[in-house]
Amino acid sequence: MASLVLEKFRNREIAARVLREIRELDPRRKVKFMHVCGSHEVTITKFGLRSLLPDWLEVISGPGCPVCVTSTAEIDEAIELAKRGYLITTFGDMFRVPGTGTSLAGARTDGADVRIVYSVADAVKTARRNPGREVVHAAVGFETTAPTTAAEVLRGPPENFSLLVCHRLIPPAMEFLLASGEVALDGFICPGHVSTIIGSKPYEPLSERYGVPQVIAGFEPIDVLLGIWMLLKQLREGRREVEIGYTRSVRPEGNVVAQEKMAQVFKIVDKKWRGFPTVPKSALELRQEFEGHDVREKFDFQAKGIEDFAKGCRCGEVLRGLIHPSECPLFNKACTPEHPVGPCAVTTEGACNIAMKHPTAIS
Amino acid sequence: MCLAIPGKVLKIDGQVAAVDFGGARREVKLDLLKNVHEDDYVLVHAGYAIQVLDETKAKEILSSWEEVARGVAGA
Questions:
Q1: Residue A185: what pLDDT?
Q2: Rounded to 5°, angle at Cα A199 from B65 and A7
Q3: What is the mean pLDDT of residues A313-323?
Q4: Is a pLDDT exceeding 80 seen at residue A145?
Q5: In angstroms, how far is the first alpha carbon of chain B from the final one?
Q6: ipTM of the predicted structure?
Q7: Which CATH number do you get for residue A142?
Q8: Distance between CA atoms of A201 and A154, rounded to whole angstroms?
Q9: Is the CB of B24 inside 8 Å of chain A's CB atoms?
Q10: Is A75 a domain residue?
Q11: Range of the domain at A161
């Protein structure tokens, strides 16, 4: 894929043409689409796409930031393990997310050994370099990231390596939102990299059960605009199905090797999401044969974490698509990217963080 | 979190490839893919290649819109 081809997904002329076609598909009513991926929110806000869209069309952000939906209990588990003297590794996004009271960053300030890694492979390397210490990797992420964790487990990490598995699955959360009826949606922009792994089939029951159009989109501005255009076309033509717009990466069957490795290593369980109640069949846990690397089995560990959010924080409603970040009373006042109160303000993929960094994009 | 970056496979050594990201070279694991070849463009997430990108499909989508865009500009 020559970079020249990729650059064209930012071409102004093509973008203008797609926008014209979008306007021509005016259904003469308000339309609301939701995306469920932090990277989509980055593209939409960074390139000011909302300001280019017609007034009748709203694109809102859903629960697409894995760090934001990791429960307080899981964050507290990681912090507690750090305080007990284990060497904790995690992704940069997770570092400053508040649990009950403090964060992993706070624990490090108090002397705990918390290290940021780029890949779970780096966490395993850390364990090999520190044979006398227990290294615990807080494994956060959706279906894009879970296969990398599975691959390292299957590669056979050292005995002093264990996992705090916080992986979650996106389609069950989408179904939860549709079933709750809290927010009326006319379509989903499905996540391009999650779908690179899982393919288009897992979304199909949602279109069948709830009559909702879905399009899997990539992450360049034209990818997102094309996704919106394809959704509007479905509405115009009365179709309710799953289509792939991000064809250079997503195959209908997904990445079968990655799916097999995930299935080999993990089982699917019900789990609470931050800002949500327990979502059925929405998370992963290590299978019994790998419990030697499961920190919860290894150390007979109990989660605590009861409150999802600090007082006044409306991250839960942001994650469920009920309000725009700027509608939260703490937004850019008591809560900023530098001094975050809620998880959505911390990470580069949190809707509040993105909105605060691009103030001109707030309408 | 689900950020993934395209890069070009320079050399494959078993389950590891040297991948070029616009000048920066990094080692990438290939455990999650079958049938990767040198000169392929792969999508890389957290140190692992997760897909071989299909340039033909990318061009297909672009060319249909490019024609429309050109037609309008020339009118």
A1: 97
A2: 35
A3: 95
A4: yes
A5: 44
A6: 0.92
A7: 3.40.50.11740
A8: 26
A9: no
A10: yes
A11: 71-169+283-298
For chain A, the domain total comes to 1
Judge contact between A71 and A93, C-beta under 8 A: no
Q: Which residues pair with A34 in a beta bridge?
A: A60, A188
Q: Is A17 inside any structural domain?
A: no
Which residues in chain B are contacts of A17 at CB distance < 8 A?
65, 68-69, 72
CA B39 to chain centre: 10
- Report how far residue A164's alpha carbon sits from residue A140's, in angstroms, rounded to the nearest whole number: 9
Closest CA to A198 of A158, A251, A140, A148: A251
Domain annotation covers residue A326: no
Alpha carbons A53 and A190: distance in angstroms, whole number: 19
Biggest CA–CA distance in chain A, Å, is 66
**Type of residue found at B11:** K
Q: Which two tokens stand for residue A218?
A: 């990539």
Range 156-215 of A in CB contact (< 8 A) with B: 191, 193-194, 196-197
Contact B69 A13 (CB under 8 A): yes
Amino acid at B14: G
Q: What are the residues whose beta carbons fall under 8 Å from the beta carbon of A233, sequence distance 6 or more?
A: A25, A239
C-alpha dist (Å) from residue B31 to A148, A186, A317:
9, 38, 38
pTM (2 d.p.): 0.94
How many CB atoms lie under 10 A from the CB of residue B9? 21
Place of tokens 């796409």: A49
**H-helix or E-strand containing A108?**
helix A104-109
The whole-angstrom distance between A104's CA and the closest CA on chain B is 18
Q: What is the pLDDT of residues A272-306, one digit of tens each?
A: 999 999 999 999 999 999 999 999 998 877 767 67
Indicate the SS3 state at residue A136: strand
Beta bridge partners of A266: A286
> Residue type for A327, please?
E
In a domain, A91, yes or no: yes
pLDDT exceeds 60 at position B74: no
Residue A96 has which token pair?
A: 């400053």
Q: Using the beta-carbon criterion (under 8 Å), do A255 and B72 form an inter-chain contact?
A: no
Residues in chain B closer than 8 A to A226 (CB atoms): 61
A5 with B51: Cβ contact below 8 A? no
Looking at residue A32, its pLDDT comes to 97
* A255-314 residues touching B, CB cutoff 8 A: 255, 257-258, 261
The 8-class DSSP code of residue A19 comes to H
Please, what is the average pLDDT of chain A?
A: 94
